[in-house]
TrEMBL record:
Source superkingdom: Bacteria
Covered range of the whole protein: 479 to 759 of 760
Protein name, per record: EAL domain-containing protein
Record organism: Actinoplanes aureus
All residue ranges annotated as the EAL domain in the record: 23-279
Length: 281
């Protein structure tokens, strides 16, 4: 067995070394990216399903790598979390999202203000200063607290440390709203919905995908919407891609939705053009 282990070692070493090398390179690149501000935000509209009006935006981060081009979040957020760099990156996302939303709301004048949703990593919630970071992003930008939505995943809530709940309550006390992202994909009991001060449920795309053609998916989706209504939570359907899904969800009284059917995540210029069609850039 020992010999076999050694052989395996000989076989795998070059591969391991390469990926380790890549890992180190990527980590160095990420450090540089934080210093040089290589991150950008995209904004995806969140639409009121009954009327089609835009009620808010989700901010989604991108990394504009000088050689590798645009890197999607799933390709660097795990490393950013592992190295702690998600803390400065996430703080930038929060400030930038609040600043941009406040600026669009100012230009919209008397119209209903847009809300902006920001994804939060568990690593950010491990930090005692998170409520202060959120408060300063709000005061700095002038965005009213109820216009900010913090999105958390179920796993983050289920595996929470004792301090997590207190931090979320402190953020809630500012007037900020909390959303459960990817709802229905965790292994959780629903008990946490009573303990956590949640305002919004985001129905995972995997339910929405099949809502028009698989009866079980439709039943589960409608069940989630009714659960939301019973608990007086807003429901947002994620990943709506066609008119069939939209009508099924709207008929089922899902309040809000987002997805390629309405718009992909847009650059701030493209979002600006969508919000202010009369404006000449
Ligand atoms: P998420 O929070 O569930 O965001 C929704 C993802 O679905 C986005 O991918 C969005 O572009 C994509 N999407 C939206 N509508 C559709 C659709 O109709 N069809 C399909 N196929 N996809 C759709 P994206 O931007 O690549 O982000 C992936 C994940 O990365 C996010 O999932 C979120 O978990 C994470 N993420 C993004 N930005 C941040 C951030 O600033 N901080 C943290 N911690 N995580 C982030
Ligand atoms: Ca999200
Ligand atoms: Ca999601
Ligand atoms: Ca489908």
């Amino acid at each position: 067995a020992k010999k076999q282990g050694k052989d395996q070692h000989a076989v795998f070493e070059p591969v391991m070394r390469e990926s380790f090398q890549r890992h180190l390179e990527m980590e160095a690149d990420l450090r540089r990216a934080v210093l040089r501000h290589e991150f950008q935000l995209r904004f995806q509209p969140i639409v009121r399903l009954r009327t089609g009006e835009i009620s808010g935006l989700e901010a989604l981060v991108r990394w504009q790598h000088p050689e590798r081009g645009m890197i999607p979040p799933l390709d660097f957020i795990p490393l950013a979390e592992e190295t702690g760099m998600i803390v400065p990156i996430g703080e930038w996302v929060l400030r930038e999202a609040c600043r941009q939303a406040a600026s669009w709301n100012a230009q919209r004048g008397d119209e209903q203000p847009l809300s902006v949703s920001v994804n939060l990593s568990a690593v950010q919630l491990d930090r005692a200063d998170l409520p202060d970071v959120v408060r300063s992003a709000l005061t700095e930008s002038g965005l009213p607290p109820h216009c900010l939505v913090i999105e958390l995943t179920e796993s983050l809530i289920v595996d929470h440390r004792p301090e997590t709940l207190r931090r979320l309550q402190a953020i809630k006390a500012l007037g900020v709203r909390l959303a459960i992202d990817d709802f229905g994909t965790g292994y959780s009991s629903l008990a946490y919905l009573r303990r956590f001060p949640v305002d919004i449920i985001k129905i995972d795309k995997s339910f929405v995908d099949d809502v028009g053609d698989v009866p079980a998916a439709a039943a589960l989706t409608h069940g989630i919407i009714q659960l939301g209504q019973a608990l007086q939570l807003s429901t947002v359907a994620e990943g709506i891609e066609d008119a069939g899904q939209l009508s099924e969800l709207a008929d089922g009284n899902c309040e809000l939705g987002q997805g390629y059917y309405f718009a992909e995540p847009l650059t701030s210029d493209a979002m600006h053009a969508l919000l202010f069609p009369g404006d000449v850039a």
